[in-house]
Specification:
CATH superfamily of the largest domain: NAD(P)-binding Rossmann-like Domain
Strand content: 5-15%
Largest sheet: 6 strands, parallel
Bound molecules: NADPH dihydro-nicotinamide-adenine-dinucleotide phosphate, 5,10-Methenyltetrahydrofolate
Number of domains: 2
CATH architecture of the largest domain: 3-Layer(aba) Sandwich
Helix content: 40-55%
Number of strands: 11
Order of helices and strands: EHEHEHEHHHEHEHEEEEHEHH
Radius of gyration: 20 Å
CATH topology of the largest domain: Rossmann fold
Length: 297
């Protein structure tokens, strides 16, 4: 079997069309959507990613401000930047980019991102709300996996999905998004041995680990659908996923490529989420509208 390529581009295009509609509605209200990306690293891969978010925002008519605090920034400085941005009326979406300087932990800092502006679902409140089924932004990457599967009409209800990786950015929120769609989910991690025991039964396998070639054809059930979240930069500069594409394509029915798969959709979703946050934050309260309609003009 040679697997079908599940390309991210058409999925991203559809999401960009939705963003465009939102940007037009915001313009009607006199609102320019704004995204702020807080950076405290000189990691090349991160800076590349930040530039690609800024480019995508710019193309969509979303103002993107990169707040570069430098690789020497301390926790307090980062926390106060997030607090200021949370209170800034011109900012509707906030992302704190990882990695952070040594000794600075992201998990406490992200609590300073206002939940309404948490467009990458980093605040623990967002993950909690997602878990109990309340409205919240999911991390863009976790949602990208689901958007790709839905775009290609791969059913989730009643299917067994094996997610490899349990991070707060991908595995855990993805578990919630999949449960909400009635999938049966296995979440695997570094202690799930042997890994194939937990992947070989699954109709859908998602790899989000950060190890090139971890998932091979030998881990898969014939006809499985495979989503590769991994973005690993090799010494020669090549970007590869967590799935060994050649052996996997022999067994799988469909596979997302790296590059050109999940990453493409992630960036489009961050921009879409920013416009959704802007719409919610600038909505007139229903009571104010009711009052207005009673006021003689
Ligand atoms: N395309 C995109 O938009 C994005 C891509 N990524 C990419 O996805 C990958 C994962 O990122 P992230 O979730 O942040 O990574 P983390 O390092 O936070 O988590 C990795 C997970 O993989 C598990 N793991 C490690 N080794 C194995 C193994 N041998 N077998 C099974 N599981 C294992 C870990 O287990 P344990 O918990 O036991 O340590 C952990 O749960 C990276 O390549 C990253 O670059 C990430 C975010 C966005
Ligand atoms: N809290 C958090 N959220 C993240 O979303 C997050 C993170 N941490 N840590 C690092 C990874 C990495 N990541 C990528 C996103 C898009 C592409 C992307 O757009 N890739 C394109 C182009 C790649 C190329 O051409 O080089 C593609 O795959 O086709 C890549 C990588 C988000 N990450």
């Amino acid at each position: 079997m040679t697997a079908l390529q599940l390309l991210g581009k058409p999925v991203a295009q559809q999401l960009r069309a939705e963003t465009e509609t939102n940007v037009a509605a915001l313009r009607h209200r006199g609102v320019l959507p704004g995204l702020a990306v807080v950076v405290a690293t000189d990691n090349e891969a991160t800076l590349w990613y930040v530039r690609s978010i800024a480019r995508a925002a710019d193309k969509a008519g979303v103002r993107c401000t990169v707040v570069d605090l430098g690789a020497g920034a301390g926790a307090e400085e980062i926390a106060s930047a997030l607090t200021l941005l949370s209170a800034d009326e011109d900012v509707h979406g906030i992302i704190l980019q990882t990695p952070l300087p040594p000794g600075v932990a992201a998990d406490e800092l992200v609590a300073h991102i206002s939940a309404a502006k948490d467009v990458d679902g980093a605040n623990p409140l967002s993950l909690g709300r997602l878990t109990v089924g309340q409205q919240a932004f999911a991390p863009a990457t976790a949602r990208a996996v689901v958007e790709i599967l839905e775009h290609y009409e791969i059913p989730l209800a009643g299917r067994h999905v094996s997610v490899v990786g349990r991070s707060a950015v991908v595995g855990k929120p993805l578990l919630q998004l999949l449960l909400r769609r009635d999938a049966t989910v296995t979440v695997c991690h570094s202690r799930s041995r042997p890994l194939e025991r937990y992947t070989a039964e699954a109709e859908i396998v998602v790899a989000a680990v950060g190890r090139p070639g971890l998932v091979t054809g030998a881990h898969l059930r014939p006809g499985a659908v495979v989503v590769d979240v991994g973005t690993n930069v090799l010494d020669n500069g090549d970007l590869v996923g967590d799935v060994e594409p050649l052996s996997a394509a022999e067994v799988a029915s469909a596979l997302t490529p790296v590059p050109g798969g999940v990453g493409t959709v992630t960036t489009a979703l961050l921009v879409l989420h920013t416009t959704q946050a802007a719409l919610q934050l600038t909505e007139e309260p229903a009571s104010a509208r009711a009052l207005e309609s009673r006021t003689p003009s």
